[in-house]
Design brief:
The complex is a heterodimer. Chain A has helices at about 1-5, 10-35, 50-75. By secondary structure, chain A is mostly helical. Classes of the chains: A mainly alpha, B mainly alpha. The interface of A and B includes residues 51, 65 and 75 of A.
Chain lengths: ~80, ~900
Amino acid sequence: MRRLRAPLFLARAVYRKRRLRDAARLLPLLGFFLLILPMLWQRPEGPGRDVVYIFVVWAGLIAVAALLAPGLGGSEAERDEGGDD
Amino acid sequence: MPFNILVLACLTYVAALFGVAFLAERRASRGMLGFLRSPLVYTLSLSIYCTAWTFYGAVGYAARSGLEFLTIYLGPTLIFVGWWWVLRKLVRIGRQQRVTSIADLISSRYGKSNLLGVVVTVIAVVAATPYIALQLQSVTLSFGVFASETPEGWALPNRDATAVWVAAGLALFTILFGTRNLDAKEQHHGIVTAIAVEAVVKLVALIAVGMFVVWGLAGGPAAIIARIQSYSDSHWVIQPGRWVGLIFLSAAAVISLPRMFQVLVVENVDERHLARASWAFPLYLFLMSLFILPIAVIGLERMPADTNPDMLVLTLPLAEGQGALAMLAFLGGFSSATSMVIVETIALATMLSNHILMPAWLWLRPKATLSGDLRRAVLLARRLSIMGVLALGFAYFRLSGGSTALAAIGLIAFAGMAQVLPALLGGIFWRGATKTGAGAGLVIGFVVWAYTLFLPSFGEGGVISAQVFAEGPFGLAWLRPQALFGTEAMDPLVHSIFWSLALNTAAFCAGSILSFPDPVERIQGAAFVNAFDSEAQAERLGWTHGKAEPEALLNMAQRILGEEALSFFEAEARAQGKAGYLPDMTPSFLAGLERRLAGSVGAATAHAMISQLFGDATVTVEDLMAVANETAQIMEYSARLEEQQEELSRTARQLREVNEKLTQLSVQKDAFLSQISHELRTPMTSIRAFSEILTEGDLPPAMVADYGRIIHTEAVRLTRLLDDLLDLSVLENGTVQLNLGLANLGQMIDHALAAAGQTRPERSFDIQRDFAAEEIFLRTDADRLVQVFINLISNARKYCDAAQPVLKIAVRQKGGRVVVDFIDNGTGIAKDAQGLIFEKFARLTDQTRAGGAGLGLAICREVMANLGGTVSYLPGQRGAAFRVTVPLRLEKQAA
């Protein structure tokens, strides 16, 4: 029933907020994908580049999370939780 | 370094922590939370994830197996970066339901089942005990490191004694700041602040050691990477199974470890802090891990081969002659160990006392629930639990001998606590999860974990014999602890995680699908899974979360109390020294208001309303059930009242009608009495007068005869009147004798017309009849029925005021009854008189007075009643109309 009452299309600002949330949800999946890649590599020469790779991915995840967090944190972000896109 | 200085440094450091905690508590008790509850403190308090196991163990771990140690920090990073999935919901639920521990969350979700709380508590205690032992071990080891390196040659007096002192000191600190108050939300400002300070200390210490190693010893980051590159032996190769398994395990642990749950959910004061922590905590982990590998690589390179790699953080600066740096590192490790033990102990003690000790105590002493000293009992239970937990940790430390590598113990604890995960995640995302499923999953997961990982960790021949390891229990090879169902190729840790969580989840799902939840469980399930929906609804209603606006309260109170609410608010405001109608929201005011409301809507409803407006917790199921009960009672009561009221008003209506009738009757009777006396008097007067004249004599015979006739006529009138009265009383008493027989209706009407023709014979009536319809034979008392007909026809003759009077007699047969209507074309009977005409002595007009005393219709009615029929006035026929209904065949009544 609620789906029927929720508007079908949203204003631009709310739409962006929804996509921001989608990005926040996808971020750990992306991170997991990037972080399991090293175990598939064969590195006969040694693990040095793996270390650098992992720390760079790690720092990247933190940076993206820090960029996303302010847009997600406000209490008003939750008000339109109910409906669908 | 002298042992005394080391001890002094420790004591000073601990005293400083005491001071910080004390000041924080004092500020908090004055309501000056300020920076104490900022996102920064929240993030730093989360750092208890990094225990001594991180501080010392991670270096050892890295020295032993290369990159793998990173998984322990990558898992939590993924969870925090993806906080929108799980953490946000956990924190929201924790605040809504006032959750005090992870055991409380599970038990609350599954219908407040204390059994589940006990199961989770047991798992947590069993899993955490080795972990606490690990912290004690790392502190004693670090003391030992200093002992062996000193030139003075002092030896650690006793390893166990050190551990005892550390444990006792931690117990004291925890009891002092962990059980100061009994807050419903279990928040400990002092401890959280102290932990934040410790978080800074350990980060600074590790980074300081790391920078010294990278730039002081190795000569820059590039050199370090080059050295790491040279480690190409098999230990350093990433093993895919362990890599994924450990990322998953640490991700699970960061949610389910009791101490993490404590700081993450229970100690959370503002959900928005989580958004900040979502990247700040991974950053903290990133910084903590950044220098682990360099320290391990350089340590392995520089230190002798027999050095314990777990202590490289300490031994490396010591060996390089950096005493101050080593001291800082020691304090960092000490901080890691103490903060972890304190929070873990508080979390476990809360669970132990809430789910095991207090229920047991209340069960043993049911009377005590009534007395008021429950608070003291709870605090005592809390303190006993703290000491118990630390004693357990110490006992494990003594028993295990402190020999196992630090990392291994930590991972065992992680895997144990991860058994809570299916019940936890299932509980907050799946409404179908039930108590039975959660219990089954937890127990099976715990048993499998204990059998495949925990008990084997005591070594072959420790708890499980070497034979069982090799051949399985009772020779069942497929039950070998480290090769369940023949999975021999797996790493033991991954094997245990895989099987325990797989079987746990399977049991959880199967149990949930097959069982049926009880009502509380279903309500809680909906509240947990839809945690955000209910919030959105509450916001839509306009209540600001966590704060009650006085206007809103007044508005609500007015709706229930009316004008009284306004005067109550005004009086309260005046009592507080404020003008106007809006007092401050003090507890006493709220309590008073609640009592007032309770008087109107019941205690539970009032409480629910106030807490809905004021508290940030939603209404509990108990509240709701109490509301439902109260409402049901009130509804039943009011339904009963309504019923009574209806009956009363019905009776009143009847009484009123009867009263009206009685009044009219009384008027009629008075009228009749004067009438009857008049009626009796008139003939009597003439009889007396004429008889007096007759007795005087000398009258002409013609006159005598004339007078005699008059006397006779008057006597006949008197007799008829008395006959009528007698007849009526006989009929009313029901003692009348009926002569039943067959009679033709037409003939009866003929008789009646002939007899009634004597009444006002001078008027000629046009009689309209339907002879064919009258051809009916009735079994009745013909004489009586004719009497009724005569009466009705004479009435028509008497009272019809039309110039050309017409009387229509209509006969119909209807069912087993015959209906005879007598309709004339006069003016009829006025509406208000229609109810009276059948009463005795009713006579509407005195216009003709042609005999009778107003008894005719009353007699008719009684006759018809005796004949089993009715006679009634038929309104709306443009004249006076009477309907007589008689049964076709009247059976003789038994009476």
